[in-house]
Amino acid sequence: MNKKIKTDAVDSLFDAVLCLQSREECYSFFEDLCTVNELLSLSQRFEVAAMLKDGKTYLEIAEKTGASTATISRVNRSLNYGNDGYELVFGRMEKKDVGK
């Protein structure tokens, strides 16, 4: 875990996210919290991660998502050398068959 982000404010934000109970609640909260561009950037990174996990090429990902190769590379680095957060979420989503 990155100790630079471990603050009381971040803990409070994560506690707030953990209180959300539906997709609609997520929309309401994140639309208030983030700008449209911030939310789209986050969702783009998540889509890139899913496509990398599925073995798609950088070119395929860039064409489908509009992500730059720098963004794709950054996400790929997180998948390979990060804290396994993406894998945790993908595994849980597969078990629940979410987003299919």
UniProtKB/TrEMBL annotation:
SUPFAM superfamilies in the cross-refs: TrpR-like
Matches recorded under Pfam families: Trp_repressor
Superkingdom classification of source: Bacteria
GO molecular-function terms, A-Z: DNA-binding transcription factor activity; sequence-specific DNA binding
Coiled-coil ranges per UniProt: none
Entry protein name: TrpR YerC/YecD
Organism: Waltera intestinalis
